[in-house]
Design brief:
The complex is a heterodimer of chains A (76) and B (100). Chain A is α+β, with helices and mostly antiparallel strands and 76 residues long. Chain A contains two helices and four strands; from the N terminus they run βαβαββ. The longest helix of chain A is centred in the middle third of the chain and has 13 residues. Chain A is globular and about 30 Å long. Classes of the chains: A alpha+beta (76), B alpha/beta (100). At the A-B interface, helix 2 of A face helix 3 and helix 4 of B.
């Protein structure tokens, strides 16, 4: 279960990552952010950038034909 | 030394020979990263680009630019990346050369 949710469907790079990062910065260590998006390049790059930032990507799930959720635990 | 090329010009147009010759020399002095964005994303479907990879350069591309241009699948020697990632790489490089 996520501590916070961010629905950024309709957003594209690089705002998908920037907005996710801004919300995560407001959260406590160990809390989980659920990001919902519908842009394929971001589904690939948001988790990648999060890992490079030292965050923990728990899951990348396809919800339906054009929607994904990414679960990120704040680790840093 | 780490050198970053940002390439947004059309493939194999006015810049390519310069890029190739620079990469050939710079890989001898350190790491070379090429980030293809804008129309430079079209390089990702051109097999000839592999020669840059064979020289030793790391080839990244903006997944957003590729998606906008209808590029569904890129050649295997390219790494998917983003403008956010580009901003981080820029901080880690001594030189940034832009071809647009």
């Amino acid at each position: 279960m996520a501590d916070r949710e961010l629905d950024i469907r309709g957003e594209v790079c690089p705002f998908t990552f920037v907005k996710s990062k801004l919300v995560l910065e407001q959260m406590e260590l160990g809390q989980v952010l659920r990001v919902v998006l519908d842009y394929p390049p971001s589904v690939e790059n948001v988790p990648k950038s999060m890992r490079e930032e030292g965050q923990e990507v728990l899951a990348i799930n396809k919800l339906d034909n054009n929607t994904w959720e990414i679960l990120i635990r704040k680790a840093k | 030394m780490r050198v970053l090329f940002v390439v947004s010009s059309n493939p194999f147009s006015k810049d390519y020979t310069t890029i190739f010759n620079l990469v050939k020399e710079l890989v001898k002095r350190g790491e070379v990263i090429i980030f293809f964005t804008g129309n430079g994303a079209y390089y990702t479907i051109r097999p000839e680009t592999e020669e840059l990879n064979k020289l030793g350069a790391r080839l990244l591309y903006c997944a957003h630019s590729a998606h906008q241009r209808g590029i569904k699948e890129t050649l295997p020697f390219f790494e998917s990346s983003s403008t956010y990632n580009l901003s981080r790489i820029m901080l880690e490089c001594q030189k940034v050369l832009s071809f647009n």
